[in-house]
Design a protein that fits this description.
Keywords: ATP-binding, Cell cycle, Cell division, DNA damage, DNA recombination, DNA repair, DNA replication, Ligase, Magnesium, Metal-binding, Nucleotide-binding. The chain is α+β, with helices and mostly antiparallel strands. The chain has 20 helices and 20 strands. It has helices spanning about 5-15, 20-35, 40-45, 65-75, 80-90, 90-110, 120-135, 140-155, 155-165, 175-185, 190-200, 205-220, 240-250, 285-295, 320-325, 335, 360-370, 395-405, 485-495, 555-565; strands at about 235, 250-255, 260-265, 270-275, 300-310, 340-350, 355, 380-385, 385-390, 410-415, 425-430, 440-450, 455-465, 470-480, 500-505, 505-510, 515-520, 520-525, 530-535, 540. The model is unreliable at about 110 (pLDDT under 50). Bound molecules: adenosine-5'-triphosphate (ATP).
Length: about 575
Amino acid sequence: MTSFREFAETCQAIEKISSTIETTNKVADLLKKVDVEELPLATHFIMSEVFPAWSGEQLGIGTSLLYVSLSKASGMAIQSIESLIRTTGDIGDTALLILKEKRKNQVTFSSFLEEQPELSITEVYHRFKTASEASGKGSQEVKVRNLQFLFTSSTPREAKYISRLALEELRIGVGEGVVRDAIAKAFSVPADVVEHALMVTNDLGIVAAAAKKGGVDALKTLGIEINRPIKMMLSQISPDIDADIRAMKEAAIEWKFDGARVQIHKSGNSVTIFSRKLENVTNSLPDLVEIVRKHVKAESAILDGEAVAVDENGRPKAFQEILKRFRRKYDVEEKMLGIPIQLNLFDIMYLNGRTLIDLSLVERRKELESCVESSVEDSKSICVDKQVITGDLEVVEKIYREALRAGHEGVMVKNPNSLYSPGKRGKNWLKKKPLMETLDLVVVGAEWGFGRRANLIGSYSVACYDPETSRFMQIGKVGTGLNDEQLKELTEMLSGLMEGGEAGGVFAIRPKVVLEIAFEEIQKSPNYNSGFALRFPRFIRIRDDKDPEEADTIQRIGRVYSQQMKRL
Ligand code: ATP
């Protein structure tokens, strides 16, 4: 078994370097050292995750639980821990200080220190897993006991990374790209083979273990599996869609539905539905499960589509209606089931044991059509999105107008020869829709409201993402556009994410929640660390189908800013 010390030392070393190549080398060295059985764990740990994102397992350790565990392990009062965090600004540095202090006292007051066995990577994982699985009465105690064990068994440096890992933020800037390259380097396999293995498994832990065990050959045997969701292929907005269509010669045009993206896994009679964020949302969509059972004629399949809420006449209703269902994961209210849902399928990635992502769009579509059966009476509940292949720009315009008239968002323009590229946003899927710029931004701070809204969070500091530094950069504050129900919902969502304490009425919030924000203009501003500010920002909706790292980037803000300057 590999000691957690190796892992903590790698984190420590990476924290001191800024070059991506050096970081990759350090990660590669770690992957080489770790036993193959523990490699999946270490691979996820180094990317700040305890469980693979696709698994849906939630660690669910909040800051207060962590403070209690640290307090019990060290004997320091929770208030003192909180005040230390306000000074250091980081849970990891705080844990390090607290445990160093404890050690010092032990050295002073006891003549010898008990020799402790070293913590292994597996042990850390098991403690986290036991904590995450505890539920019901007495679960807090179980969680605290397991975390406390980790803190009492670790060195101060290990505690630094255990506490950050508990919040799934190592702050060392290692993401999927670095780990993918590190696997290639560590086990001398080509990066494109690693990339393909990642696309089909969606799990770098599995990929790393296969590369270590059997190199390229083992990687090539990896494939898509039912109930292990793959990332969704994404689309791009094109600055000149006509030119792109001309370049493709012919493009596949489909209506773009405004609903919620769903990835459907069917195996026999069992149906599982994953959201855009790959969360298992099966429980909120029992009617969709029935539709799939009834109309998808395949022993096993993975399908891609959009679930749309429709009114009595079959016209699409607001996207909000579907998302509301996702949010109430475990308890779909009757009245929500009353909103009829329509499933529009537009892709297929797996059929009866065969992985289809390396087929062209045209070939995949044939497979899709062959396994979806919709009779006339049911055409309202399921359909394969109509597709027209054309190079004629006037035809494209006509379909686009029709789509808008029918109440949809616009059209998708796809390359008929393109493969399904999980997680990729590129020129093979383009969107054409009326322009209304909004930004998806992450809540990083909050202020309580006043008067009637004194017990609700009334104002939200929002930030864009900088993928180069993995930091969230503030760009403004939003307090308008929200009704009471939305304020209540957001207050509930954010209460568990408060970090540190209050400074000048503002609470720091762990970056987890994404909001879609409309605005009048982007200005340069020294008031926020992004260097930009939004004029008249207004809340549109909660984007809980997006992860914080998928928020708009500072680079995009820069581009929108310059486009705006050109228009003036
Ligand atoms: P992003 O910010 O990633 O672009 P978005 O959720 O705003 O996210 P768009 O990029 O505007 O989405 O459009 C892509 C989305 O459009 C898909 O994720 C899917 O949910 C939806 N969609 C509707 N119809 C189709 C279709 N025929 N083909 C592909 N996607 C479709």
